[in-house]
Fold each of these.
Amino acid sequence: MDRIKIVGGNTLSGTIPISGAKNAALPLMIASLLTDDRLTLKNVPNLADVNLLARILRNHGVDLAVDGKRAGPKAYLGETFHLTARDIVDTSAPYEMVSRMRASFWVLGPLLARMHRARVSLPGGCAIGTRPVDMHLVGLKALGAQLDIDGGYVLAKAPKGLIGNRITFPKVSVGATHNVLMAAALAKGETLIENAAREPEIGDVAECLTKMGVEIEGIGTSTLRIQGKPRLEGAVHSVLPDRIETGTFAFAVAAAGGDVLLEGARPEHLQAALDALSHTGATVETVAGGVRVARTGVDIGPVTVETQPFPGFPTDLQAQIMALVTRASGTSIIRETIFENRFMHVQELARLGADIQLHGDTATITGVPELRGAPVMATDLRASVSLVIAGLMAEGETVINRVYHLDRGFERLEEKLSSCGADVTRVTER
Ligand code: UD1
């Protein structure tokens, strides 16, 4: 199993190209189930989760071709996927696959809309809380689906197809919004989704659906009005840049010190996180081609942060900012309001010398003058990258075990960091 070894203390300088967003690429790939035509996706990141979803979609009968690798300096342009769901041969998504990646549950809405039936495993528990799917099911029921749960599977049918309706979500859910939005694209008539998630990845999927022929009003707002179509066309769409990867590298630069251009980053997609970063004393500047982050010669200041749905501070950057402020000159307060139990990184950061007290959903971090390298364990995707950030600041060597968590969501992480001067290497054991 691979490990990542970091020798802390180096500052970072140079350019880091931002990859396509995992959280947009996944639902965009799933949207291919809505048409018998070809959906071409550009700027798809090469990640374990993307590859797993490709397997799941192939199992449904989706034909997937990936453009050949390009030679030369543009290695970070992302891959181009051509997905064609001409014949959906299997409307069942098995437990072995869905349990490995929650987002694969989102095939339910599109399969139901196109094939009028689907059998999709419930995703089951997850390391960062219970994460139910009740709102997905309520939303699809409102569109006329008949749903049964049997043997851990959702058995869904809509013999006459889905019919548009008004759905008001009781709380903001990214996944439920994706699932119902994609289902509504092929439903008869108009669907109104109120209290929809406003994350930029939802907007990206909505833009792609628009290219496929769906009429959608309110993209980027919490009210989506969707006019479903009986048949969707193919389209060509480029995956938007990953705001979580952007934020992660921004916090890494602030942690290690230095000056880095995050190439292709879209600051408007992570303004709350960049504002918090400015509060810590880092310089954040929007420049042609991306965002420049620098911290030179100033201490890290403490922050008070609460995670919120977009446009608030993203839960997917909570662990990273916590790693940064372990070295702040003062006390920071970080409250997690989206997921219960999303503090698994705290124990590991403590192994490096961080001083963090947990009370319910709130962490109090008292900055320490130094961290010291140690062996640590990656527990989930975002938690593991917070250990990389801490490792960059720590004295001596930090070894991160179970890096497959990192490979799920970060493309060439060690390459991108070492090209800016970090001492980060992957140790592969056979
Ligand atoms: C997505 C993101 C994940 C991010 C999260 C919140 C992808 C692939 N994953 O996950 O990286 O951390 O949004 O921004 O895009 N909930 C319910 N009932 C439901 C659905 C959700 O109670 O039916 C709850 C969840 O338990 C959680 C909250 O709603 O407490 C938000 O979850 P949701 O936005 O659905 O997260 P995901 O779509 O799973």
Amino acid sequence: MKYYIIFGPPGAGKGTHSELLVKKFSFLHISTGDLLRREIAKESEIGKKVKSLIDNGELADDETVLRLIENVIICPALECRGFILDGYPRNLKQALELDKLLAKRGSRINGVISLIVDEDTIVGRIRRRALIENRKDDLETETILHRIKTYHTCTEPLIDYYKSKGCYYSVDGSTTIEEGFESICRIIERLNSEQQ
Ligand code: ADP
């Protein structure tokens, strides 16, 4: 089983590329944002707890997100070749928890693919997404900028963490989807063949 992280700021295209990777490699896409939004839609205990945090662009608590991740990683479908983690981990604590969870299963992160996109581009993309998807956290500029700031302070330090583990790869995320996807596929195909 392979475990890849698709990494980058909000609006970098993590969800878009994850969906394409699912089709090409028979991976399962795990988006913690989607898992949390599903809990909110169900009005579950978790959903009620995290709703206002997410709407306001704050992170959900580590414990809750870990529980959601554990549930989906534990029993994949038979045809599943691996996982694309999108939106997880988002801070060092989550990264350490993920390493522990995978180590228990005799696995590790095979690669972290980081989409590099400048701030103006991601703000523009999120604004366009706001017209299509009905996400409260995409509506206000202040909330969007707050999420980007949280990315810089909490999530970006993970780049050094994964670089030090030798599994960090960056891709230009400001190109067309096709070009970006081609670069991502080249990295995954190389890693898949090196790490049989
Ligand atoms: P984006 O990366 O574009 O902001 P996501 O769908 O990945 O969108 O995340 C939406 C929101 O869900 C985040 O702003 C945060 O509130 C919450 N969330 C997602 N993943 C995590 C996580 N790993 N830890 C804490 N909160 C999370």
